[in-house]
Amino acid sequence: MTTPPFAPVTEHDVFVVTQQLGRPARDVIGVAARCVCGNPTVVSTKPRLGDGTPFPTLYYLCHPGATAAISTLEANGVMAEFTELLAASPELQSQYLAAHEAYLSDRESIEHVDEIDHVTAGGMPERVKCLHALAGHALAAGPGVNPFGDLALERAAWSPDVCTCPDYSAATDAPAAE
What we know:
The protein is mainly alpha-helical.
């Protein structure tokens, strides 16, 4: 299981995440999950961004293949289906509450931010709102921690065991991988 503290993020990691997102990576403090090739799949972001903005999403899904596959699930209404599963199952409610508490604990171990106290991501623990956040948490924390992140990853047309990354080192401005 990957939880704080993370290995220090490298200049190459930030470069790759910037390429993955198509915008500058913000306040990345670690890589919580990696592709089999070593590129970031989930990054961890500071609970308070450098400009002072509270940022509840500690585990941010950045891998383009994973993001696209999860977006397809969201577009197909899977969040509503998962919310119905949650409402119908006391066992899933208990597991999801535990995922929420684990997420809060991880973030609190980095920094306490009053404005987001008791707020996680993805709708935890009452509803299933953002599969990207839940899948990111599942990849970072490992199987069995976030039931709806696990379910989303099972259904996604993407696998963390198969690399679909471009060769970021081919970019002329890419820092050397460490």
